[in-house]
């Protein structure tokens, strides 16, 4: 019995090369998102944002990262050493692993080899995603707990509760899409959207998934894990230097992953509307463009909405999102059964 | 009080307005309405923040761009000389070393040591002149009392406010530094600006 089918038809050197390229692209996108967020939020608040380092402040993330990496690797005496060092790695590892399944294009023929423009096309795409989402929560939880500080611990506790509450609705929001597409493979979901992108028939699911994603990525207005006004800095209070940089990196990579998933699942991945079929090399650009739209929306919301109170967060998650997601899945199921 | 007196009041001059208390009520209860309200208000908020991009920025890029100061702005002090037509010879200083500024100074940051003018060495227009005139700008509170106290308008407050330095001793300004024509580093605000 096969647990998950993985379409390994490529040569081993193609897979290694592909992994390096996708990892490099993901790595390069994070500083772009960093500077874009600061610039866009600056404009929305009537200021420029960083504009001193490099042309138009474009080298600001580089300066930030260099600053963080050259700092001392500080560790509080009350911390649990091994876990304190491992926790940021868990965060970054899960983010990169989730990035691997985002399809940037269909199978192309490059140098006579069949190459899929994605890290790996597993037959359990969304499950893989949620599995790594759940492991990512250990990064936050262990980091907060092993710091040996009450602020970190409170932030980690909040993070745990928040992630568990919102992962349910996020998963249920995808169930509707999976039922409609009748596949769990992300490339399969994209090709199933040839006629119509799922944002139209699954609009409620799209809204639920997007809202839950804000909570999953710990971003405003659900950034209660690092509510700086009340918790100093949340789970990463005691972190500094390279370890803090890993947390920071993972957070923004998670934003990219979520944008990629929304693009793939609801916005038709590399497909273009009105039946336009561009050559294969355009596909990754289409995906990146759609991802940048979602990322812009994330930044836009961060500049707009204030942080929720903790009880509001919980009641919204359990009393609004979860029933709505369940209803959405139920209605979709009825429609799918009745139309087939 | 059953009968109202038949008096007509002239209310055309000033109306106190209607006696109405406006009550702001909480939004109507109900989950569906609440969800709708949340959605609409969020969209309104998003519209507001997006509109800010079009409005442009209010930033003043400080070291390159400066906020112009008002003419009466109290910045770093200046000591003055009499205006003279002879450019080769330094003209006489206005300060006569009376120490009234030092006496008026609440922060006690001015030090004046006076000396007698002689026919060979004539520095000021009066009987005496300030041999030493120092202002410790790390103590000065820029109140302008020295300017008010001076009987000869020898000391005035300038417009320079960029007074940071690496050493405290560098902030003790001597007479030569205060007499020197200051670099006009701060733009002056025009009338009506």
Compact description:
The complex is a heterodimer of chains A (340) and B (193). Chain A has 340 residues and is an all-alpha fold. Helix content of chain A is 64%, strand content 2%.
Structure, described:
- The complex is a heterodimer of chains A (340) and B (193).
- By secondary structure, chain A is mostly helical.
- Chain A has one domain.
- Helix content of chain A is 64%, strand content 2%.
- Chain A has helices at residues 12-44, 60-69, 81-99, 125-146, 150-181, 186-191, 203-216, 228-231, 241-266, 283-304, 310-339; strands at 107-110, 113-116.
- A two-stranded antiparallel sheet of chain A has the order 1-2.
- In chain A, helix 3 (81-99) packs parallel to helix 9.
- The model of chain A has no long low-confidence stretch (mean pLDDT 84).
- Chain B is of the alpha+beta class.
- Among the domains of chain B are: 27-58; 77-179, 2-Layer Sandwich (Alpha-Beta Plaits), CATH 3.30.70.3270.
- In chain B, 21% of the residues lie in helices and 12% in strands.
- Chain B has four helices and five strands.
- Chain B has helices at residues 31-55, 100-104, 145-149, 175-179, and strands at 77-79, 110-116, 128-136, 155-157, 172-173.
- A three-stranded antiparallel β-sheet of chain B has the order 2-3-5. Chain B has a two-stranded antiparallel ribbon with strand order 1-4.
- Chain B is elongated.
- The model of chain B has no long low-confidence stretch (mean pLDDT 84).
Give me the secondary-structure category of chain A: mainly alpha
Strand line-up across the major sheet of chain B: 2-3-5
- Major beta sheet summary of chain B: 3 strands, antiparallel
Low-confidence stretches of chain B: none
What is this structure's SSE topology?
The complex is a heterodimer of chains A (340) and B (193).
Chain A: H1 12-44, H2 60-69, H3 81-99, E1 107-110, E2 113-116, H4 125-146, H5 150-181, H6 186-191, H7 203-216, H8 228-231, H9 241-266, H10 283-304, H11 310-339
Antiparallel strand pairs in A: 1-2
Chain B: H1 31-55, E1 77-79, H2 100-104, E2 110-116, E3 128-136, H3 145-149, E4 155-157, E5 172-173, H4 175-179
Antiparallel strand pairs in B: 1-4, 2-3, 3-5
């Amino acid at each position: 019995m096969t647990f998950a089918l993985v379409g390994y038809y490529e040569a081993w050197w193609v897979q290694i090369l592909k992994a390096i390229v996708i990892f490099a692209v993901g790595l390069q996108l994070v500083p772009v998102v960093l500077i874009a967020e600061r610039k866009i939020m600056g404009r929305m608040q009537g200021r420029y944002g960083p504009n001193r380092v490099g042309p138009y402040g474009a080298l600001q993330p580089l300066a930030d990262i260099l600053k963080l990496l050259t700092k001392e690797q500080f560790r509080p005496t009350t911390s649990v050493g091994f876990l304190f060092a491992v926790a940021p790695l868990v965060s970054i590892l899960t983010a990169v692993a989730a990035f691997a399944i985002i399809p940037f294009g269909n199978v192309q023929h490059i140098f006579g080899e069949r190459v899929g423009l994605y890290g790996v096309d597993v037959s359990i795409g969304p499950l893989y995603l949620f599995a790594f989402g759940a492991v990512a929560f250990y990064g936050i939880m262990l980091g907060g707990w092993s710091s040996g500080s009450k602020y970190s611990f409170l932030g980690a506790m909040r993070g745990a509760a928040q992630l568990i509450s919102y992962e349910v609705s996020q998963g249920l929001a995808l169930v509707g899409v999976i039922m409609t597409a009748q596949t769990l493979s992300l490339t399969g979901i994209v090709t199933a959207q040839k006629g119509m992108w799922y944002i139209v028939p699954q609009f409620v699911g799209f809204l639920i998934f997007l809202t839950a994603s804000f909570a999953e990525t710990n971003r405003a207005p659900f950034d209660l894990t690092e509510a700086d006004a009340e918790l100093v800095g949340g789970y990463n209070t005691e972190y500094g230097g390279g370890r803090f940089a890993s947390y920071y990196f993972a957070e923004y990579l998670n934003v990219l992953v979520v944008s990629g998933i929304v693009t793939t699942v609801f916005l038709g991945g590399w497909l273009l509307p009105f039946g336009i079929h561009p050559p294969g090399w355009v596909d990754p650009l289409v995906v990146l463009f759609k991802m940048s739209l979602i990322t812009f929306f994330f930044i836009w919301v961060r500049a707009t909405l204030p942080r929720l109170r903790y009880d509001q967060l919980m009641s919204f998650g359990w009393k609004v999102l979860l029933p709505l997601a369940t209803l959405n899945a139920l209605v979709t199921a009825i429609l799918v059964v009745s139309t087939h | 009080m059953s009968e109202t007196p038949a008096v007509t009041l002239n209310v055309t001059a000033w109306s106190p307005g209607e006696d109405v208390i406006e009550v702001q009520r909480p939004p109507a209860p109900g989950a569906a309405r609440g969800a709708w309200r949340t959605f609409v208000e969020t969209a309104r908020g998003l519209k507001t923040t997006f509109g800010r991009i079009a409005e442009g920025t209010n930033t003043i890029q400080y070291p390159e761009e400066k906020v112009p100061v008002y003419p009466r702005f109290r910045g770093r002090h200046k000591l003055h000389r009499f205006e003279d037509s002879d450019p080769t010879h330094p003209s006489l200083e206005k300060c006569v070393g009376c120490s009234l500024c030092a006496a008026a100074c609440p922060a006690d940051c001015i030090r004046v040591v006076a000396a007698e003018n002689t026919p060979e060495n004539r520095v000021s227009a009066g009987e005496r002149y300030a041999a030493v005139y120092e202002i410790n700008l790390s103590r000065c509170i820029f109140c302008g009392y020295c300017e008010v106290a001076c009987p000869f308008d020898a000391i005035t407050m300038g417009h320079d406010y960029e007074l940071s330095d690496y050493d405290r001793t560098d902030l003790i300004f001597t007479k030569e530094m205060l007499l020197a024509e200051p670099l006009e580093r701060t733009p002056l605000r025009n009338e009506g600006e």
